[in-house]
What we know:
The complex is a heterodimer. By secondary structure, chain A is mostly helical.
Amino acid sequence: MFPPPPDHPLSQAEIIALEADHYHSFVNLALFLSVFTGMEIVVIFTPSPGWFIMTTLITLSLIKFICVILWFMHLIYDPPLLFIVFIAGMILAAGTMTALLRLMSAADVDPAVTNPSGFNYSVPPGQTALV
Amino acid sequence: MSDAASITHDDLGGHGNADAHVEHPTSTGISNKKLLMWLFLASDCMFFGTLISTHLVYRKVYPYGAITKGIVDVTNTFDIELTSFSTFILLMSSFLMALAVSAMHKGQLKSFRRATIGVMFFGLIFLGCQVYEFTNFFDGRAEYTFSVKTPPTAKFPNGEVISSTYHGSSDVVRAQAHLAVALVEEHPDWLTIPAPKPGEPVEKTEGVAPTVLADKHPSWVVAQFKQTKVERASLSLQNSVFGSTFFMMTGTHGCHVAGGVLWLAALFFYSYSGRMEKNMHGAALDVEVAGLYWHFVDIVWIVIFTAVYLVEYIPGYGPGP
């Protein structure tokens, strides 16, 4: 990961050879992404426990996510600074999401819990909430 | 750290050669365009992170803000086959984008154009699937029974009342409007019924004003229009919190995809201007930056597909208290 930059400007022939290597990586990755997507769809219909399916989905999504970032977005071939910049944003995003999910729950937004006076928020089926 | 005396691989946006147009050296050794695009993507991560987490917080609060009032199975609304297809399409567009960037680095303009056309085509397919999907989500599907009084005939001098069933939008007003159009198309001769005189009573429907049909023909109304079964609940920005967060998130993503398609179209037409050949490395950097944006849009969809669509099908994580 993060190969050191060459000490001389690359010639056109070197660039073409480098890109040929990248091409094979891209094709392999595209095949893997298709297979992983298929696996995600199949696994949700298997008679497995919910925790197993959830873990599998998160793992497969994470693998797909990392593969696209590293190879398609060239992060593996680029200087480490770009990796740090993106990861910093990812960490902030993950932290924000975790905080939101921990701080807010369905119970916090369910009027049946937050509104003991029983004001009727529900709308009869077949009609929109806005009158 | 690079300086003006030693322009290397990184300074020229990833690849360089002795004949390249030399860009201004940067203190980071990375092209400013590329660095700023990565910074933008890092900030966009947070943007989508908040949208997705808001949806995850509110997804159980469906349909009308009261979790204990009844949850409609949203898996009945989603069409996972179509969404899987559009996910596959977006992944393949990402592959083609990588090929387009690679072609530009090699200086192969024709290959770049072919790959870019492919990316735009797949992007438009994805957007088309989204539009079709959202239209179906918005409409929903319900079964109705109705009756119509036909014009006088030789057999029935006062007309006859025909009862039938109709499958249409789960929104009653919209369903009746669509029924009116369908009936007019199927029975154009019914429009020959003379209009009632002023003050003459018109047979009323139950619970729904016959405004749409009255526009078509005042005396020809659909009576007893009643919803008997909701097969697929309508999902909209207004009728549920789930719908509101869902459409905000996927709509924002769709706008990003649309913006990406326009960007690639601009690059595609720009490639015919002759300016790209004069500065291939600058052009390669521009295409690479566009590629970063497109790949980001793809990875966001990877997260949305899993966290929004697939999670609803997991036992214990789906709808329900």
